[in-house]
């Protein structure tokens, strides 16, 4: 099977860095396009920390800037070596990731096993777990503690 397109979702957390970098490395080695994807959506934690109201469009624009900055900080060494496209969606993370993979006809989803969800994970399950169960393509889950011997990746 030739991998031509990879979806690499990130929640912009340090814990998601390993999955993102691994997705970019696979894209580099396979000559595949990597769609780096972030899903915006106000969580209770987010609403608690922000006093002003954001429309969905404004929140998406803010996330686009944050995604671009996150990529530049965490993956600057890989960016010139891989065909990358960035996108931000709005909604329920796992549903939007599965939908995006289908729309893009992704051959593979690469994502970290843990994001920033903490206690919420214990209550409703992780985003990665739900993506694995519902995606129409293979999902490669990378533990945040993964370290690549060849590229120096460390989460």
Question: Can you describe this structure?
Answer:
With 155 residues, this protein is α/β, with parallel strands linked by helices. It has 6 helices and 5 strands, in the order βαβααβαβααβ. The protein has a 5-stranded parallel sheet, sandwiched between helices. The longest helix has 20 residues, at 56-75. The radius of gyration is 15 Å and the shape is globular. Residues 147-155 have low confidence and may be disordered.
Key descriptive features of the protein:
five-stranded parallel beta sheet; 5 strands; single chain; alpha/beta; globular; disordered C terminus; 155 residues; 43% helix
Into which percentage range does the β-strand content fall? 15-25%
SS-derived structural category = alpha/beta
Distance between the termini: 29 Å
- The shape, in one word, is globular
Please give a quick description of this structure:
The protein is an alpha/beta fold and 155 residues long. It is built from six helices and five strands, in the order βαβααβαβααβ. The chain starts with a strand and ends in a 13-residue tail after the last strand.
Mind sketching the topology for me?
Layout: E1 5-9, H1 17-30, E2 33-40, H2 44-49, H3 56-75, E3 83-90, H4 93-104, E4 108-112, H5 119-124, H6 127-134, E5 139-142
Parallel strand pairs: 1-2, 1-4, 2-3, 4-5
Helix pairs in contact: 4-6
């Amino acid at each position: 099977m030739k991998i031509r397109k990879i979806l690499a979702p990130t929640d912009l957390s340090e814990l998601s860095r390993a999955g993102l970098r691994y997705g970019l490395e696979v894209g580099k080695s396979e000559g595949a396009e990597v769609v780096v994807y972030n899903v915006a959506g106000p969580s209770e934690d987010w609403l608690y920390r922000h006093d002003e109201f954001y429309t969905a469009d404004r929140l998406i624009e803010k996330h686009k800037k944050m995604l671009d900055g996150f990529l530049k900080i965490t993956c600057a060494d890989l960016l010139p070596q891989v065909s990358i496209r960035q996108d931000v969606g709005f909604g329920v993370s796992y549903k939007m990731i599965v939908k995006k993979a289908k729309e893009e006809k992704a051959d593979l989803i690469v994502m970290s096993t843990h994001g920033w969800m903490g206690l919420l994970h214990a209550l409703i399950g992780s985003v990665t777990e739900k993506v694995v169960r519902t995606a129409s393509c293979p999902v490669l889950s990378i533990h945040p503690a993964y370290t690549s011997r060849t590229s120096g990746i460390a989460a």
